[in-house]
């Protein structure tokens, strides 16, 4: 409510102690001048979104691949050794690629020590792990596996730093699922191979993909999974293919369309952001 | 006028809102209005109590849910609130603080009873996270039913207008105030040698920027004449103590812990520089109290802080360690360069004893109150170039007098009364208008609103308004 008629008025200042001549509910022209909209807002293109979602699809395909191997062993169509040998070879090649130029004898010695320990204890304990969940009914095992692998997907690390992400929960869920499934296999050697495969698929493979991932890799992975599923079960093939395509093309499309509703306002009322002192960075300030 | 102040926050709890409600009520009482304060029970403190100056406080028996707030059920306390409002013949319901669920409920009951409603928003909110979005929606619904809103700073008004979508002319800006008669300087309490005391007084939590403080203290590791006095307690206290250990400054950083509000002055007067590192603040009473005690104020420039004090009283810095450190250095430099000596208090017209000083101040203030609003501080304090270290330090007593011309509770009360007068002339909302307002701002709340409305109807049948026993007013003896 600006009172008109007062000719000589001091200009309004944005502070709390002058402006006596103005009514308290006076709104100056400078009102909301410092309002900023969509300051840190990033609009993604469809290509970016499609390329980004492949990381999630890769994890789904990784789980699918692991389950395919389990099915092959369960149905006895492939012997455990025929699975173990190639995956050992691929792991070796992957290791060389991963270490690359930084490979040295001492590093190789360290890593092989780790490998021998894991394989030795894994082999030693595989009879026990094999019988660990044998008393539980098959339906329970499959339901439980479904949920823990879903947990693996939910808590997985896809390159974003959010509160949900926990690599530890994700990995443990997957290994627990593998131990559950191992009890359905005929011998403890089968169980051992399944656990080795779980380590390859859920520990080593994510390390590789995190280091170098390209959206194009999804095509061969998708093709291999589809082919394997074609031999095993048609309904599962359709389910897998439709889920992947839905996630890879429909979801990014919806996301890109919804981006027009991105709206964020900033202003002087925003809390200043400072780095919180934690145990790690405490000494840097001293 | 019969006014009911409602807030979850009131004494015995301590904080900015509590102080505001208390001081405003006292001032309104002395202006001859009838005030009742509504809050929830604090442990033993329940029932109806009279505090200083026969201020009637209802401590309603409602369980506290989280952070001193009651559970926001919207309808469960309707009968009790209606009984109090009717019994006290309230004309204006004045709610305080957006966090207070009790205030929101009482405002709804008030508007359903056809009373006038005023709401004071004491805090700033962001828009980025989920909790802010939810609180903002609730506030939007409630402010839709309120006649007038009051904010404590211009930034606060911008923030409230944005997040609650109220019309701009329905929002007034009335700042907080500080009792300058209680926060008087006492330079003799300062160390007589060359030591400079930097005082920090706040809750030690993240929002008060304690992480910044933890970065600043180590910078003074090698300046043995700079000491810190840190008043307050909170989760970040461990961090500060760790910093103190690691930098070997146990002798020079005094951690006082939590202190009663009336004891804060004793620590303020011992310092030369007051440091405020808040990350967000709608008004910040602490810096005004410090300036009133004659300290040089160094503060982060966030929220409403740049509006609060004239440049001659405050050094503003961006919320970064380097900027604040530089500002403190300027303050120290000014202090060392200034020729200001602690002159005998009598020369300034103040007696050394605190009690006598208070009496003197009170009397003096009464004498020149009528001329007060015409005193424009801009004329008495020319804007200073902020970053020039040559600027001399103002005499502490001069600071106190200047702050007194800027803020006092009487002015706040008079301006608030203007708002009350204004809303009393407005027509109260009809039920259909209220329904429409709720529908517009957040239709999900209609569920609660309808229940509350029919509950009120039921109560009207069961306990008709005209048969409610009215509360007796205590006749105040003129003091």
From TrEMBL, chain A:
<dbReference type="Pfam" id="PF06432">
    <property type="entry name" value="GPI2"/>
</dbReference>
<dbReference type="GO" id="GO:0045313">
    <property type="term" value="P:rhabdomere membrane biogenesis"/>
</dbReference>
<protein>
    <submittedName>
        <fullName>Uncharacterized protein</fullName>
    </submittedName>
</protein>
<feature type="transmembrane region" description="Helical">
    <location>
        <begin position="189"/>
        <end position="207"/>
    </location>
</feature>
<feature type="transmembrane region" description="Helical">
    <location>
        <begin position="213"/>
        <end position="232"/>
    </location>
</feature>
<feature type="transmembrane region" description="Helical">
    <location>
        <begin position="114"/>
        <end position="133"/>
    </location>
</feature>
<comment type="pathway">
    <text>Glycolipid biosynthesis; glycosylphosphatidylinositol-anchor biosynthesis.</text>
</comment>
<dbReference type="GO" id="GO:0000506">
    <property type="term" value="C:glycosylphosphatidylinositol-N-acetylglucosaminyltransferase (GPI-GnT) complex"/>
</dbReference>
<keyword id="KW-0808">Transferase</keyword>
<keyword id="KW-0812">Transmembrane</keyword>
<keyword id="KW-0472">Membrane</keyword>
<feature type="transmembrane region" description="Helical">
    <location>
        <begin position="43"/>
        <end position="70"/>
    </location>
</feature>
<keyword id="KW-1133">Transmembrane helix</keyword>
<feature type="transmembrane region" description="Helical">
    <location>
        <begin position="140"/>
        <end position="158"/>
    </location>
</feature>
<keyword id="KW-0337">GPI-anchor biosynthesis</keyword>
<keyword id="KW-0328">Glycosyltransferase</keyword>
<feature type="transmembrane region" description="Helical">
    <location>
        <begin position="237"/>
        <end position="256"/>
    </location>
</feature>
<dbReference type="InterPro" id="IPR009450">
    <property type="entry name" value="Plno_GlcNAc_GPI2"/>
</dbReference>
<dbReference type="GO" id="GO:0006506">
    <property type="term" value="P:GPI anchor biosynthetic process"/>
</dbReference>
<comment type="similarity">
    <text>Belongs to the PIGC family.</text>
</comment>
<dbReference type="GO" id="GO:0017176">
    <property type="term" value="F:phosphatidylinositol N-acetylglucosaminyltransferase activity"/>
</dbReference>
Automatic annotation (TrEMBL), chain B:
<dbReference type="GO" id="GO:0017176">
    <property type="term" value="F:phosphatidylinositol N-acetylglucosaminyltransferase activity"/>
</dbReference>
<keyword id="KW-0328">Glycosyltransferase</keyword>
<dbReference type="InterPro" id="IPR001296">
    <property type="entry name" value="Glyco_trans_1"/>
</dbReference>
<keyword id="KW-0812">Transmembrane</keyword>
<keyword id="KW-0808">Transferase</keyword>
<dbReference type="InterPro" id="IPR013234">
    <property type="entry name" value="PIGA_GPI_anchor_biosynthesis"/>
</dbReference>
<dbReference type="GO" id="GO:0000506">
    <property type="term" value="C:glycosylphosphatidylinositol-N-acetylglucosaminyltransferase (GPI-GnT) complex"/>
</dbReference>
<feature type="compositionally biased region" description="Low complexity">
    <location>
        <begin position="373"/>
        <end position="384"/>
    </location>
</feature>
<keyword id="KW-0337">GPI-anchor biosynthesis</keyword>
<feature type="region of interest" description="Disordered">
    <location>
        <begin position="341"/>
        <end position="389"/>
    </location>
</feature>
<dbReference type="Pfam" id="PF08288">
    <property type="entry name" value="PIGA"/>
</dbReference>
<keyword id="KW-1133">Transmembrane helix</keyword>
<feature type="domain" description="PIGA GPI anchor biosynthesis">
    <location>
        <begin position="40"/>
        <end position="129"/>
    </location>
</feature>
<feature type="transmembrane region" description="Helical">
    <location>
        <begin position="434"/>
        <end position="456"/>
    </location>
</feature>
<protein>
    <recommendedName>
        <fullName>phosphatidylinositol N-acetylglucosaminyltransferase</fullName>
        <ecNumber>2.4.1.198</ecNumber>
    </recommendedName>
</protein>
<dbReference type="GO" id="GO:0006506">
    <property type="term" value="P:GPI anchor biosynthetic process"/>
</dbReference>
<feature type="domain" description="Glycosyl transferase family 1">
    <location>
        <begin position="197"/>
        <end position="332"/>
    </location>
</feature>
<comment type="pathway">
    <text>Glycolipid biosynthesis; glycosylphosphatidylinositol-anchor biosynthesis.</text>
</comment>
<dbReference type="Pfam" id="PF00534">
    <property type="entry name" value="Glycos_transf_1"/>
</dbReference>
<keyword id="KW-0472">Membrane</keyword>
<dbReference type="InterPro" id="IPR039507">
    <property type="entry name" value="PIG-A/GPI3"/>
</dbReference>
């Amino acid at each position: 409510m600006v009172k008109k008629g007062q000719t000589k008025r001091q200009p309004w200042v944005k502070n709390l102690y002058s402006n006596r001549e103005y009514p308290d509910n006076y709104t100056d022209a400078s009102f909301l001048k410092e309002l900023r909209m969509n300051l840190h807002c990033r609009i993604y293109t469809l290509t970016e979104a499609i390329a980004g979602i492949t990381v999630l699809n890769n994890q789904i395909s990784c789980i699918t691949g692991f389950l395919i191997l389990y099915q092959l062993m369960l149905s006895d169509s492939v012997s455990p050794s025929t699975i173990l040998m190639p995956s050992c070879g691929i792991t070796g090649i992957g290791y060389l690629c991963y270490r690359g130029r930084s490979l040295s004898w001492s590093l190789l010695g360290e890593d092989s020590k780790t490998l021998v320990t894991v394989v030795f204890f894994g082999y030693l304990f595989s009879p026990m792990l094999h019988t660990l969940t044998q008393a539980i009914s098959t339906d329970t095992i499959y339901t439980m596996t479904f949920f823990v692998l879903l947990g693996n997907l939910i808590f997985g690390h896809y390159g974003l730093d959010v509160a949900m992400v926990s690599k530890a929960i994700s990995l443990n869920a997957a290994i627990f699922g593998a131990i559950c499934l191992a009890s359905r296999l005929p011998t403890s050697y089968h169980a051992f191979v399944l656990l080795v495969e779980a380590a390859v698929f859920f520990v080593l493979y994510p390390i590789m993909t995190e280091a170098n991932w390209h959206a194009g890799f999804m095509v061969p992975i998708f093709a291999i999974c589809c082919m394997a599923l074609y031999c095993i079960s048609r309904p599962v093939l359709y389910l897998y293919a439709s889920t992947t395509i839905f996630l890879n093309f429909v979801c990014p499309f919806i996301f890109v369309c919804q981006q027009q509703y991105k709206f964020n306002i900033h202003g002087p009322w925003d809390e200043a952001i400072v780095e919180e002192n934690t145990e790690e960075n405490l000494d840097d300030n001293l | 006028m019969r006014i009911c102040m409602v807030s979850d926050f009131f004494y015995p709890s301590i904080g900015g809102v509590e102080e505001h409600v208390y001081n405003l009520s006292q001032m309104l009482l002395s202006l001859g209005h009838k005030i009742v304060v509504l809050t929830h029970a604090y442990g033993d403190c329940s029932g109806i109590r009279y505090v200083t100056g026969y201020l009637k406080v209802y401590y309603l028996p409602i369980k506290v849910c989280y952070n001193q707030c009651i559970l926001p059920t919207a309808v469960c306390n309707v009968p009790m609130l209606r009984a109090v409002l009717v019994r006290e013949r309230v004309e204006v319901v004045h709610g305080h603080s957006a966090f207070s669920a009790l205030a929101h409920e009482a405002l709804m009951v008030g508007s359903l009873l056809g009373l006038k409603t005023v709401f004071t928003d004491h805090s700033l909110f962001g828009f980025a996270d989920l909790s802010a979005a939810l609180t903002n929606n609730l506030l939007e619904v409630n402010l839709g039913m309120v006649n007038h809103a009051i904010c404590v700073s211009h930034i606060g008004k911008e923030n409230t207008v944005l997040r609650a979508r109220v019309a701009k002319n329905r929002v007034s800006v009335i700042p907080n105030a500080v009792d300058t008669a209680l926060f008087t300087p006492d330079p003799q309490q300062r160390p007589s040698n060359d030591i400079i005391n930097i005082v920090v007084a706040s809750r030690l939590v993240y929002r008060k920027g304690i992480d910044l403080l933890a970065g600043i203290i180590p910078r003074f590791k090698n300046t043995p004449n700079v000491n810190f006095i840190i008043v307050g307690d909170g989760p970040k206290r461990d961090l500060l103590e760790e910093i103190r250990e690691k930098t070997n400054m146990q002798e020079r950083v005094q951690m006082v812990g939590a202190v009663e509000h009336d004891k804060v002055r004793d620590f303020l007067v011992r310092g030369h520089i007051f440091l405020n590192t808040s990350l967000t603040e709608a008004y910040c009473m602490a810096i005004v109290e410090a300036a009133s005690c004659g300290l040089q104020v160094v503060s982060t420039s966030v929220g409403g802080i740049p509006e609060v004090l004239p440049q001659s009283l405050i050094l503003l810095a961006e919320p970064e360690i380097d900027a604040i450190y530089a500002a403190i250095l300027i303050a120290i430099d000014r202090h060392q360069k200034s020729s200001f000596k602690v002159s005998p208090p009598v020369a300034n017209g103040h007696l050394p004893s605190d009690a006598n000083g208070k009496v003197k101040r009170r009397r003096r203030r009464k004498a020149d109150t009528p001329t007060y609003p015409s005193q424009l501080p801009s004329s008495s304090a020319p804007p200073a170039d902020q970053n020039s270290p040559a600027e001399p330090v103002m005499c502490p007593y001069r600071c106190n007098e200047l702050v007194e011309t800027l803020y006092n509770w009487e002015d706040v009360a008079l301006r608030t009364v203007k708002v009350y007068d204004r809303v009393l002339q407005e027509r109260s909302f009809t039920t259909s208008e209220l329904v429409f307002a709720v529908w517009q701002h957040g239709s999900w709340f209609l569920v609660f609103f309808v229940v509350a409305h029919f509950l009120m109807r039921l109560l009207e049948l069961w306990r008709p308004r005209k048969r409610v026993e009215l509360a007796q007013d205590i006749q105040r003896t003129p003091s």
